[in-house]
Amino acid sequence: MKLFCIISDKSHVGKTYIASHIVSSLKMLNKIVCYYKPFVMEVRDNKLFDCEYVKNKTTLKASEIFVSYATNGNISPLHSINTKIDERDITDLIDENRDIYDYMVFESLSLYAPIKENYNFMDLILDIKKENEMHIIPIVEYDSNIIHSALEQVELFHTRGFKIPFIIINIKKDLFISNNVVGYIRSQLNPIKVYIIEFDNEAENKKIEDIKYPELIKDLF
User: Fold this and answer.
1) What pTM value is reported for the model?
2) Are 66 and 37 in contact (CB under 8 A)?
3) Confidence class for position 72, pLDDT limits 50, 70, 90
4) Phi/psi of residue 6, nearest 5 degrees
5) How far is CA 131 from the centre of its chain?
6) What's the angle, vertex CA 11, arms to CA 7 and CA 16, rounded to 5?
7) What's the CA gap between 165 and 75, in Å, rounded?
8) How far apart are CA 46 and CA 76, in angstroms?
9) Residues 122, 165, 107, 142, Cα dihedral to 10°
10) Which of 19, 99, 107, 133 supports an S-S bond with 2, CB 3.0-4.6 Å?
């Protein structure tokens, strides 16, 4: 199974937005795909926001959306909820579904903030990588720390042998972007591609019906 692991050094930078577009695009291309977010922190209206968002935006069935852990213990309308989780819970779920799905879009929480005590994200994905083809997709928010964040995330994974098809820079609407800064980032990350995307406020109940980022999706293959 091929995994696209979407990670970031911050929360609320658009990981689920990109995950939904990748999932929908793969479905449009007749690929067998599922979505997995092991750690879900955000709850709205007594529901796990990320999984509800993916369910509303994509054509995935509830049985194709996996989640393992919610901080406040709320029970999701979806499945696979545990109040405690270790690395085996995640690797076992992936192993169980390897022969069912061709692709899994795996979304992690903030890389540098501890997800829980004694939990090592790098050890987990190195373990997953032993049995699966894993591609890391870093998302970086465009702010005053953009250069450091972009270089640090790519270096962290690239030096450990992970495939990074591209890095995504998320910009806020109406924010001025310096071409010199973007050019410098691209020169430092070469040959890894850099995509600059402005996340829009799409209606949460509207399905994604078009491949919005065709060049980005093409690079996944």
Assistant:
1) 0.86
2) yes
3) very low
4) -95, 120
5) 19
6) 60
7) 35
8) 8
9) 100
10) 133
**Among 144, 75, 79, 137, residue whose Cα is nearest residue 111:** 137
Q: What pLDDT is recorded for position 84?
A: 55
161: left (phi over 0), alpha (psi -120 to 50) or beta: left
Please identify which residue in the block is written with the tokens 């997953």: 128
What sign for the dihedral angle of Cα 194, 199, 204, 205?
negative
Provide the pLDDT confidence category of residue 80 given band limits of 50, 70 and 90: very low
Report whether 39 contacts 171 (CB < 8 A): no
Which residue do the tokens 């169980």 mark? 96
The CA distance from 87 to 136, in Å, is 18
Name the H helices within the chain.
15-28, 49-57, 87-97, 121-129, 146-158, 179-189, 214-218
Identify which has the larger pLDDT, 1 or 49: 1
Q: Which of the four pLDDT bands, split at 50, 70 and 90, describes residue 152?
A: confident
pLDDT at 166 over 50: yes
- 113-126 average pLDDT score: 64
Calculate ∠ Cα 161-87-134, nearest 5°.
Answer: 30
Quote the tokens at residue 188.
């430092």
